[in-house]
Amino acid sequence: MATILRKIAEQILSRRTFSNxxxxxxxxxxxxxxxxxxxxxSDESVAALARAFDGEIAQGGKARLITGGSASPSLAALISxxxxxxxxxxxxxxxxxxxxxxxxxxxxxxxxxxxxxTSGRRFLEAYLAGLEAQAAVGFGVNxxxxxxxxxxxxxxxxxxxxxxxARLLGAGENGLVAAMSLAxxxxxxxxxxxxxxxxxxxxxxxxxxxxxxxRMALAGIGGRPDILERPQGFLDLFGGDDAKGWEGLTFExxxxxxxxxxxxxxxxxxxxxxxxxxxxxxxxxxxxxxAGDITRIETKVGISAARxxxxxxxxxxxxxxxxxxxxxxTAFLKGSLxxxxxxxxxxxxxxxxxxxxxxxxxxxxxxxxxxxxRLPHIVTITTRGGRIYRKSxxxxxxxxxxxxxxxxxxxKFTDCLRWGNRDNSGAFYPRLRDLTDFxxxxxxxxxxxxxxxxxxxxx
Length: 459
Prior knowledge:
Layout: H1 4-14, H2 20-40, H3 44-52, E1 63-64, E2 70-71, H4 73-85, H5 100-110, H6 120-141, H7 144-148, H8 156-168, H9 173-186, H10 198-218, H11 234-238, H12 256-259, H13 274-287, E3 294-301, H14 303-308, H15 317-320, H16 324-334, H17 350-355, E4 359-363, H18 366-369, E5 377-383, E6 388-393, H19 406-419, H20 428-432, H21 445-452
Parallel strand pairs: 3-4
Antiparallel strand pairs: 1-2, 3-5, 5-6
């Protein structure tokens, strides 16, 4: 009987063609992630990594860095993926409960090797392989794994991304299995770190683990092919009380990015706030509400979301990204959220601080959540005149069910460039969207100049 990792490897290798829709969505995810990498490259978490590994960053390494210079593939993946996740603006992938692209894209970029031809199309195919692997691993353990307190970006993301990297490096079935097995041994990341610089580091560690696992596997190191399902394996140790395992795992002809998609973030903060933000902005617009009209805003969210949002009175920009009170207050007062709203100066604005105490958050009960994959987040507004307005959202803006427009995607990318001090001349965004036209990403200076040119020096 085939093990779960072998089933995943067989599925990845069996997909020899991808639909235009799958390729387009993969391209959009990669471009969005590159924007987030550029925006996050000057974040303190990334600057600290550059200081920590200063002696290993040079001009002659094998892998180019989003921050300038080059390094080993392992270190490049660590730094670039941390940058991608530093501002919490990167996409979410519900089947894995992970920030899939923030791990996958930097890991794949890190193993592009000069002299070895890797077309834009082949890069996107490896991305889709890693995404499908993440979904399959997540199928057996989520949401129990995530609700138990594991940051699936660092666990499920690491295992699935290892498959994508191994695929890009030309691994066969045994190599794919070995890469995912080794990555399982590397997987870790507690959600208790949310609101600190360790949180974006989880994405960096996962990308580094994926690169290391794939390269080790191709060099001949291996682990148990049944490490997901065996006693003392991933499910046993990491699954949580309600994990169902992989008995019902099936693969459809339609790729997971077609049926489920990735959620492109509209707001640069924890995804656990997004549905409430969208519902609040809907109510504000529908009823013409002003701040002075409101006495109380109540939000009802999932248990894991409430646990993620542990900072009702944030003291820095990282905590603010994990504060329902700050995110809702700022979104209501300004009508939207942007990267500039998450600075030390902005989080102390008097009007925001005055509004925040009116906002309350409560989770669903364990009984309400039992057996339900996804419940809506609900926002209830009480006005000074006693009127009550309520709105629920099952899906955030940016999801497959409520997609961003092309204009909104480009506006987000432009915001990322502006935040990263990157010049937006030369039709940057449309040129990156022509990713499939690049014949060899590894040696194409035009591609790398788009990503890393005009970069600020990291101190």
